[in-house]
């Protein structure tokens, strides 16, 4: 289970080797050559005695090129590879060689051997060619139940017709004939005494028929076609009770009784099954008390009749299919079809089948048919002509190692062909260096076994050369195994033996260091990948490869991916961070921020492409430059529709003072879509009379408007003055006539006084 779990972990990293990812070989913690080879098919073991660092258990297991760089001589490197070798390789035949067909070869090669290292795939090529004039055996198996009476009359001269038609395809044709009804027992047939000799007794439509039977081989395969017609003429139908028939019993006997039927090993085998109803299946026999399953063997007696019909159950579909395939028999369900056409269709297809496939092997097929194209995953070719050659590439991979010395084999054969390719398999799970194993070797202080460059110590001994005893307390100095006072012995990740730390194995990677303080798996990861796959983990710290920075080496210093097609970094709308553009301009997107319908310069950027693509003008007018810089979809339209909210309307003035309009939008697929008018909009020159009339009309209109305004102002002013006058009159009338405090003055003049005054005045000379 431990080895299996390690393999699952390693498989995930098997492709990281060329990318300098995790070293799957050293992280597997293999302590022997055999363990190393099981880690991964790319791993190799160095059996050189003086190699590797002290106290590093996995240092001998590495990629072969790494071992060479570290000083391991090539002759000490154990790295077996899967190979295949051809053992038998007769050339393909082009035509049958006459009456004896054993020299005909339709598959090449015929025998190979493969040596497989688990996980290391190897492949081989197989060619198949159906030869011309190949012999054919056709056995006609007919249902003789009462419902087939009309068909029996139809085939009375079938033998002659079949022979004539099959001669068009082969000169070596043989024909056989057999019949069946059903098991002669209740409830499948009529078993009452009155029906023993004539099951049709009392049946008015057809009063005479023969007793029912399981299967009879009436004519073994022969080239005498007249015999077929004679046997057919003799036959009479029978009558059974239920609708299903015992056809599967008959098919199986016709398939497995090879000697009695007369199947030739070197011929195509065709079994024509003629019936008008479904057959009984396995377990149906229990209705009649038949509990013994069918044994798949031949049970034809001296009379060529099926003797176990009333002793065993009907065969299952699985058993039937197995026996048909085992004896290379094509089963054809037909009554009225033209059988030579069916045979021709069968011959036009080549399909490979695998026999005795070992469970620990994986096979992958790639077909190369007559058109020469490779079709991975297919193992058949159709629509072939006789003589066409097709080939198949077959890859083989072992998923594990069986017990030592195990050899397996399997066969590959075209369906229906006698020819087959035999493949023998042996497994490369051991190391050749084990042949030089030394027990109680002086290299291991006579306390261990030296094998493949390492010592396997006896119980109670430790050390690279088994130089220390586990129970010798004088050799145990725990202080020498602590990094500092108060620290754990061997950092808690190893054991102190012989005054030095021996680090534990880990399924995650390698633990190393004088005090087991380091490992190669405790570094930062990015998306689950150690050091992002762009660095090596050394003692908890990622050492980034050239061109990468960051704690987990996920940041690329490469800026080339950020340069847009116009040569600007991120199209001038963002910055390049870790090899990718981060767009800062609102609305900008794309790998190089090249897409931005809402940016201020969006229209100006796309204008050049409109000019060069539609009018062959502008600074991109050069055809190569235009094709390189302008990859957007540009459509020329009569009318622009601006109802799309995602589209931006762009306008610019041409050299002829015309206005060109286009819309710019981004499709859901990420492609920029430009829709432009077929031609710019240009304004026509104004008419002189129209201009004069427009000026005069404008002046008159302005004068009328000014007069209207003056009149309005005067009217408003007059109304205000009149209102003021009316107000003043109202106030004067109020003061003169309506003031209750005002009284008109009255003057009185007495006469005496007046007179006196006059006299006085007169005397004084006043008057």
Automatic annotation (TrEMBL):
Disulfide cross-links: 25-431, 33-43, 36-72, 46-61, 200-209, 257-298, 369-381, 401-650, 429-433, 452-490, 457-466, 468-481, 496-501, 498-531, 503-516, 518-523, 537-542, 539-570, 544-553, 576-581, 578-626, 583-593, 596-599, 603-612, 609-682, 630-658
Gene Ontology cellular component terms for the protein in this record: cell surface; focal adhesion; integrin alphav-beta5 complex
Gene3D superfamilies attached to this UniProt entry: 4.10.1240.30, Cytochrome c1, transmembrane anchor, C-terminal, Laminin, ligand-binding face of the semaphorins, domain 2, ntegrin, alpha v. Chain A, domain 3, von Willebrand factor, type A domain
Domain spans labelled Integrin beta subunit cytoplasmic: 711-758
Alphabetical keyword list: Calcium, Cell adhesion, Cell membrane, Disulfide bond, EGF-like domain, Glycoprotein, Integrin, Magnesium, Membrane, Metal-binding, Phosphoprotein, Receptor, Repeat, Signal, Transmembrane, Transmembrane helix
Ranges of residues in domain Integrin beta subunit tail: 603-687
Cross-referenced SMART domains: INB, Integrin_b_cyt, Integrin_B_tail, PSI
Compartments in which it is found: Cell membrane
Ranges of residues in domain PSI: 24-73
Bilayer-spanning residue ranges: 688-710
Domain of life: Eukaryota
GO terms assigned for molecular function: integrin binding; metal ion binding
Pfam families given in the database record: EGF_2, EGF_integrin, I-EGF_1, Integrin_b_cyt, Integrin_B_tail, Integrin_beta, PSI_integrin
Keyword RNA-binding assigned: no
Range of residues in the leader sequence: 1-23
Region (Disordered): 83-105
Subunit record text: Heterodimer of an alpha and a beta subunit. Beta-5 (ITGB5) associates with alpha-V (ITGAV). Interacts with MYO10. Interacts with DAB2. Integrin ITGAV:ITGB5 interacts with FBLN5 (via N-terminus). ITGAV:ITGB5 interacts with CCN3. Interacts with tensin TNS3; TNS3 also interacts with PEAK1, thus acting as an adapter molecule to bridge the association of PEAK1 with ITGB5.
Main function: Integrin alpha-V/beta-5 (ITGAV:ITGB5) is a receptor for fibronectin. It recognizes the sequence R-G-D in its ligand.
Family note: Belongs to the integrin beta chain family.
Protein name: Integrin beta
Origin species: Astyanax mexicanus (Blind cave fish)
């Amino acid at each position: 289970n431990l080895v299996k779990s390690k393999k699952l972990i390693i498989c995930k990293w098997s492709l990281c080797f060329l990318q300098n990812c995790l070293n799957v070989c050293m992280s597997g913690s293999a302590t022997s050559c055999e363990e190393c080879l099981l880690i991964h098919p790319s791993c190799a073991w160095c059996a050189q005695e003086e190699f590797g660092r002290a106290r590093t258990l996995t240092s001998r297991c590495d990629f072969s090129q790494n071992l060479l760089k570290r000083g391991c001589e090539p002759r000490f490197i154990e790295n077996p590879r899967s190979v295949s070798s051809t053992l038998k390789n007769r050339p393909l035949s082009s035509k049958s060689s006459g009456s004896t067909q054993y020299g005909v070869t339709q598959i090449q090669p015929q025998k190979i051997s493969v040596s497989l290292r688990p996980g290391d795939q190897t492949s081989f090529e197989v060619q198949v060619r159906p030869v011309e004039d190949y012999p054919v055996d056709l056995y006609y198996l007919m249902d003789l139940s009462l419902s087939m009476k009309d068909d029996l009359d139809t085939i009375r001269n079938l033998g002659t017709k079949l022979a004539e038609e099959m001669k068009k395809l082969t000169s070596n044709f043989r024909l056989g004939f057999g019949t069946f009804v059903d098991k002669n027992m209740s409830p499948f047939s009529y078993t009452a005494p009155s029906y023993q000799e004539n099951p049709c007794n009392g049946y008015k439509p057809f009063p005479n028929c023969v007793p029912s039977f399981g299967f009879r081989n009436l004519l073994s395969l022969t080239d005498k076609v007249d015999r077929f017609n004679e046997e057919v003429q003799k036959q009479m139908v029978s009558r059974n009770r239920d609708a299903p028939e015992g056809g599967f019993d008959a098919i199986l006997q016709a398939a497995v009784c090879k000697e009695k039927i007369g199947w030739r090993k070197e011929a195509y085998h065709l079994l024509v099954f003629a019936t008008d109803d479904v057959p009984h299946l396995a377990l149906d026999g229990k209705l009649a008390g038949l509990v013994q399953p069918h044994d798949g063997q031949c049970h034809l007696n001296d009379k060529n009749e099926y003797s176990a019909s009333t002793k065993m159950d009907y065969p299952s579909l699985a058993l039937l299919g197995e026996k048909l395939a085992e004896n290379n028999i094509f089963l054809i369900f037909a009554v009225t079809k033209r059988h030579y056409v069916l045979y021709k269709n069968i011959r036009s297809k080549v399909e490979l089948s695998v026999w005795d496939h070992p469970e620990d092997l994986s096979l992958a097929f790639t077909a190369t048919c007559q058109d020469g194209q490779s079709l991975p995953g297919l193992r058949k070719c159709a629509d072939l002509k006789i003589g066409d050659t097709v080939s198949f590439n077959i890859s083989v991979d072992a998923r594990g190692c069986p017990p030592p010395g195990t050899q397996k084999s399997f066969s590959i054969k075209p369906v229906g062909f006698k020819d087959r390719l035999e493949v023998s398999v042996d497994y490369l799970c051991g190391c050749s260096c084990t042949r030089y194993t030394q027990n109680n070797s002086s290299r291991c202080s006579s306390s261990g076994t030296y094998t493949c460059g390492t010592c396997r110590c006896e119980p109670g001994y430790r050390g690279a050369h088994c130089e220390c005893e586990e129970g010798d307390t004088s050799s145990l100095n725990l202080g020498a195994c602590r990094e500092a006072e108060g620290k754990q012995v061997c950092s808690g990740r190893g054991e102190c033996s012989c005054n030095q730390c021996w680090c534990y194995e880990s399924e995650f990677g390698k633990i190393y260091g004088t005090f087991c303080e380091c490992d190669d798996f405790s570094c930062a990861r990015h998306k689950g990948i150690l050091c992002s796959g762009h660095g090596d983990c050394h003692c908890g710290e990622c050492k980034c490869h050239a061109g990468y920075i960051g704690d987990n080496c996920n940041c690329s210093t490469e800026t080339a991916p950020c340069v847009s097609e116009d040569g600007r970094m991120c199209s001038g709308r963002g910055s390049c961070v870790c090899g990718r553009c981060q767009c800062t301009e609102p609305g900008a997107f794309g790998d190089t921020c090249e897409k931005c319908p809402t940016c201020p310069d969006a229209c100006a950027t796309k204008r050049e492409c409109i000019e060069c693509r539609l009018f062959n003008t502008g600074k991109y007018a050069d055809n190569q430059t235009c094709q390189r810089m302008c990859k957007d979809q540009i459509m020329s339209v009569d009318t622009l529709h601006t109802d799309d909210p995602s589209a931006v309307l762009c306008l610019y003035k041409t050299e002829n003072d015309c206005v060109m309009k286009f819309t710019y939008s981004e499709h859901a697929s990420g492609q920029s879509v430009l829709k432009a008018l077929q031609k710019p909009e240009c304004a026509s020159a104004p008419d002189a009379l129209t201009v004069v009339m427009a000026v005069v009309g404008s002046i008159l209109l302005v004068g009328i408007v000014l007069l209207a305004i003056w009149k309005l102002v005067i009217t408003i002013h007059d109304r205000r003055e009149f209102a003021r006058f009316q107000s003043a009159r109202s106030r004067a009338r109020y003061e003169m006539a309506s003031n209750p405090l005002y009284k008109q003055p009255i003057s009185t003049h007495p006469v005496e006084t007046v007179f006196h005054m006059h006299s006085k005045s007169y005397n004084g000379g006043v008057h």
